[in-house]
Amino acid sequence: MRRIGSLDWRGSSAAREGGLIVRDAHVLCPRGGIDARRDVVVRKGEIAEIVEAGSAELSDAETIEAEGRSLFPAFFDPHVHLRTPGREDEEDIETGSRAAAAGGFCGVLAMANTSPPVDTAGELSALREQARERAAIPVGFLACVTRGMKGEELSEMAELAEAGACGVSDDGLPIASARVMRRALQYQALTDLPIALHEEDPELSAGASMHEGGVSAALGIAGVPSVSESTMIARDCALAAYESARVHVQHLSAAESVEVVARAKEAGVAVSCEATPHHLLLTDEEVRSLDARFKMNPPLRSESDRQALIEGLRSGLIDCVATDHAPHSSEEKEVPFEQAAMGVIGLETAFSALFTELVLPGVLELGTLVERLGGGAEPFGFEASRIEPGVEANLVLVDLDAEWEAGAEGWESRSQNSCFDGLRQRGRVLVTVAGGRVAYRQRSFAMGVAA
Amino acid sequence: MRHLLAIEDLERSDVDRIMALAESFAEVGRRDIKKVPTLRGRTIVSLFYESSTRTSSSFELAAKRLSADVVSIKSVGSSVEKGESLKDTIATLSAYGPEAIVIRSPHAGAAQLVTRWTEASVVNAGDGKHEHPSQALLDVYTLLQRLGALDGRRIWIVGDVLHSRVARSGILAFRLMGAEVTVCGPPTLIPRGIAESLGCQVTHDLGGLGEAEVVYALRMQHERMGESFVPSIREYVARYGIDSRRLGPRQLLMHPGPVNRGVELSPEVIDGPNSLITAQVESGLVVRMAILYELLAGGEPREGAVDGRQGELPAPTPIGEPA
């Protein structure tokens, strides 16, 4: 696969020396075809060998005693908001990437709907520079499809591609004009940049702040109909097919959307898509509380929509999980529901929430979840992490039996607007290894000492 | 009851209790001196973020009839207009130590949110298009006065249900009291999913109106025309306007006010013998007295409570007066 953009982080310029040994881990890597207890030896940032549990030769390298806990290839989130530049009071590259590391991610892609939006090569380069200094794990940046995210003129995408953009997206806003959308798809032939789409027909969603259905009828809150999303996906799949372009559909929320993507994939359209943990786990019933923690765009939808998303994730029709990690200050959330900002944080709870609510009850295989949490890399031209010799050591050690309460010990993120806040969860990320270096270590899990 | 936020939160026994209280206050209203000292020394803040005549004036008068001190704040000309957040406004007003805050807001859930930031009892006087519980309680009271009970009665709510908090609270309250509710209006003004969600029947045709014992017309706002909810007022009136041809002699007519004469109701039915519109306004006062009493003086109505002799709660001793 041709690599397009670049990921940057603190560790990228460091000399690849030393290493570490993860001893006696239950290694589960669906892509690499491993599901067994092994020792994983990391040297010079790469996985050097995978041997029978307890047989790795100890060296002066750091040793992590896994004692049978699970080791997965690290996760990749193609959809986060790091709020830089402009809203560093809510998140910045350092806190956002720390939150990602705490969630087991070794790669995240930051959206461009910042203040101002990222639509020039200069701004993109400045962000990459910041990431090289401050990011705890590799971070990539998308740029806007249109100048100033206004949906009118294309941004200078060829230059942005040269500057290392990982793709383009006007996420947060749809590209309402079919003409502009078509031009962007045509231009992809030149830049090869992935185009990530926030699909919403503003004519159908104007003024609305939750899913249209029985709950919105009862609350008297204007609803966003499911078809506001699916009709736009249908439009853009048709345009992509016509222009032989490829598109990535962000945060699918409705059953109709899953259907449209299924038909497009069947017809051979180059389309990939993602779903968020909150859309996979929650429904508009949560909004009855009128708590702004449950306000996001697209909105939480009905149970049948949720079931369609789960089925799509299981079958692989939905390529990956993306958190749409969207930090907001408390002032933006401590207001009546209709006035509140849209979005929730999600990096630190993505694995545990999905594991607790989908894997433990037997709805989804653990291996499938691990695969989908890593699946966000490929649509953007990156290789998904694997546990096999010779590849970059991006690993996450998880205690599947550990029970914890989301948010009880605070968040790595600078914001607290989690829709899973207070939820008892199973499955805790203990250590995240990015490029062979420990990027995150859970406080109570002591290195080299049996916990 | 600590707060009155939504009909959805109420049990039938809560409504019964407020109805009983309202009846005792109606009795007081027939005396020469209509004021009782029940809430003397208590402060009630009324905070209106939307214009209102009926609701704000009747809450204010209800508080005064109960001898409470009332502070009325309208968004126009206040710090709200200067961009102060709801949270900060409530913190400021709470510094006065009010026992109750009556709030109307253009946003659903505002009253509920206020309960997080104040010790006061909170009364929802309308939150966006969500609920308007005091209106529904006064509507129930008005009907109980006429019909005795609502069990098995058929009530039709006609008009713009989509944008109406009166309709939502009304459906819930009438059903809670045992009535069967049908909503009728153009398909563009009936929210999707309301039948299953609130347990009412939905029709787009006034043809079956004859079965209704009560016809509750909603206000049709002119600005809806511009948003293409209906093609024209003329077409709306032709299909959904209630006039003397459509309203039978034994059907009761209600409207939350203010009425668009000649739109949702024709002039002759507004002033006709079946109209309960004036009775609704009268009920508003006694029901809101009952609500404030229920929240501030609490619990079951006590013997003689409304005379202010035995039932009066001990008021704080005013500074400068001997105890």
How is the topology of this model organized?
The complex is a heterodimer of chains A (451) and B (323).
Chain A: E1 19-29, E2 34-43, E3 46-52, E4 62-65, E5 70-73, E6 75-80, H1 93-102, E7 105-110, H2 121-134, E8 139-141, H3 157-162, E9 168-169, H4 178-191, E10 195-197, H5 202-205, E11 210-211, H6 214-219, E12 223-224, H7 227-242, E13 246-249, H8 255-266, E14 270-275, H9 277-281, H10 303-315, E15 320-321, H11 330-333, H12 350-359, H13 366-374, E16 395-405, E17 424-434, E18 437-441
Parallel strand pairs in A: 1-4, 1-5, 6-7, 7-8, 9-10, 10-13, 11-12, 13-14, 14-15
Antiparallel strand pairs in A: 1-2, 2-3, 5-16, 16-17, 17-18
Helix pairs in contact in A: 4-7, 7-8, 12-13
Chain B: H1 12-29, E1 43-48, H2 54-65, E2 69-74, H3 86-94, E3 100-105, H4 110-114, E4 121-127, H5 133-147, E5 154-158, H6 165-176, E6 180-184, H7 194-198, E7 201-203, E8 214-217, H8 223-226, H9 233-240, E9 252-254, H10 267-270, H11 277-296
Parallel strand pairs in B: 1-2, 1-3, 3-4, 5-6, 5-8, 6-7, 8-9
How would you characterize the overall build of this protein?
The complex is a heterodimer of chains A (451) and B (323). With 451 residues, chain A is an alpha/beta fold. Chain A folds into two domains: 10-72 and 391-441, Roll (Urease, subunit C, domain 1); 75-380, Alpha-Beta Barrel (TIM Barrel). Chain A has helices at residues 93-102, 121-134, 157-162, 178-191, 202-205, 214-219, 227-242, 255-266, 277-281, 303-315, 330-333, 350-359, 366-374, and strands at 19-29, 34-43, 46-52, 62-65, 70-73, 75-80, 105-110, 139-141, 168-169, 195-197, 210-211, 223-224, 246-249, 270-275, 320-321, 395-405, 424-434, 437-441. In chain A, strands 1, 2, 3, 4, 5, 16, 17 and 18 form an eight-stranded mixed sheet that branches. A five-stranded parallel sheet of chain A has the order 9-10-13-14-15. A three-stranded parallel sheet of chain A has the order 6-7-8. In chain A, strand 9 (168-169), helix 4 (178-191) and strand 10 (195-197) form a beta-alpha-beta unit. In chain A, helix 4 crosses helix 7 (227-242) and helix 7 runs parallel beside helix 8 (255-266). Chain A is globular. Chain B is an alpha/beta fold. Chain B folds into two domains: 7-128 and 283-307, Aspartate/ornithine carbamoyltransferase (Rossmann fold, 3-Layer(aba) Sandwich), CATH 3.40.50.1370; 133-279, 3-Layer(aba) Sandwich (Rossmann fold). Chain B has helices at residues 12-29, 54-65, 86-94, 110-114, 133-147, 165-176, 194-198, 223-226, 233-240, 267-270, 277-296, and strands at residues 43-48, 69-74, 100-105, 121-127, 154-158, 180-184, 201-203, 214-217, 252-254. In chain B, strands 7-6-5-8-9 form a five-stranded parallel sheet, covered by helices on one side. In chain B, strands 2-1-3-4 form a four-stranded parallel sheet. The radius of gyration of chain B is 20 Å and the shape is globular. The interface between A and B is medium-sized, with 20 and 27 residues.
